Amino acid sequence: KATVSVLYWSFFRTMASRSRDFSKVLEAIDSLIPKTSAKPLGPSPAQMSNADAMAFGMKKLGITEKQLKELNVIHIAGTKGKGSTASMCESILRHHGLKTAMFTSPHLISVTERVRINGMPVSEETFATHFWSVWDKLREDESSEMEEVPKTTFFRFMTLVALHCFTHEDIDVAVIEVGMGGRLDATNSIPAPVVCGITHIGLDHVEVLGNTLSLIAAEKAGICKKDIPCLIAPGQHPEAQEQLVTSATKAGAPHVTCPSFSEYSGDAKVGLEGVHQLDNASLAVGLCHTWLQLKKEGKSSIPSFPFTLTDAFKSGLAETRWDGRCQTIQVNDKLRVMIDGAHTDQSMKVAVNWFREKAAPEREKRLVFFCQQRDVEQLLSVFKDVSIFKKAHFTPLLSSKGSIHASNVVSSEALEWVQKQCDVWKAMVPSVEAVVCSSLPSVIDELSNTTEEMDVLFTGSLYLAGDVLKAFKSKATA
Questions:
Q1: 427-455 per-position pLDDT tens digit
Q2: Element containing residue 112 per DSSP (H, E)
Q3: Predicted local confidence at residue 42, as pLDDT
Q4: Which of 29, 264, 373, 411 has the fewest CB atoms nearer than 10 Å to its CB?
Q5: C-alpha of 322 from chain center
């Protein structure tokens, strides 16, 4: 599609890198993230609806509806398993020889992880090129001061950066993960995806999406569109399942619930650990099969399931990698860490069961925990009848929702919140010793120097998962 376009972007990358390096990108991103939960007085551009803000942004960027349709999007919503399902879809289609793009959130180590081409995060240089193009277009009528925040919010801005990148990369398919909800999400500005998918529904973000499975399912199913196939992951709670079917029908979206992965005969293996990934794998396989039938075979309806998995499907599933979800790292000859970003009670049960199966019986077992401002009693109640841990460590994070940068400075408020989590544990699981750690590096150093053979579960937050991965990556390169 345009050799001229490729040459232009190569030139633009070079020019941009001379004056605006990646550190400046991070400074600009940081200015987009609210530093307080207080609402601003009076109207603000950031208070525009996602639909209006995205329409404004794409018009400024010159991204047309035709270009969005040419991305051939697979759009994925749900409470649990969105990122895992997206990563499986991307891997399967890449193994079919397609050039893939993927947009997910949050990132664990680098913001570039959110925008991927052919399974890999884009380079810092490429990210910066598209970032500054979006930034400048949204600010061209504003003051040149860095403090002037563009007419958008952080997630909207990242969505625009991804779409700007994808529309310039000559891709075959884009796998797009919803940020939160679905109906009002910034990613729902994509008018005509090829196919939509909905993963398991659970209770999360109840203050925004509603406090019942039915209300949350209705928001997630807001990505359903007339005549666009919608696939539903197997194993849904009946209340959620009923609402998803109702919402899809109301939207005029042809829909089907995917079969259990066990119905696919043969020797297919899923590269991501945990039995819960089988439902995600079934949805991913269904989404990819539907996409291939519609785009490559010229079919006009949802194909039947199950079907015979080809080598490309099997290889794509087996070679999928998705950090921070049921991930194991052998740190040294004594310490093995297991990381899962579970942050709902249902996903916490899955993570604990995975750890129980994975941990060696003869090894000492520890827990390192942190959760965001959620119902800590409900989350920790999962551990009431779990007797495998010798000790539980409660730690503050290095990262935060309020900044793109990690910080070794722990506020008194953060320590108070960690102390509350520890107190709840002591009341619920008095038989297991619990301690508050001054910082995440301190507990990692303590565990890394163990003389006992030890398995440690880090869980409670994707932010914790990211901090832990970054910490062990730094140790490995030190």
A1: 999 999 999 999 999 999 999 999 999 99
A2: none
A3: 33
A4: 373
A5: 10
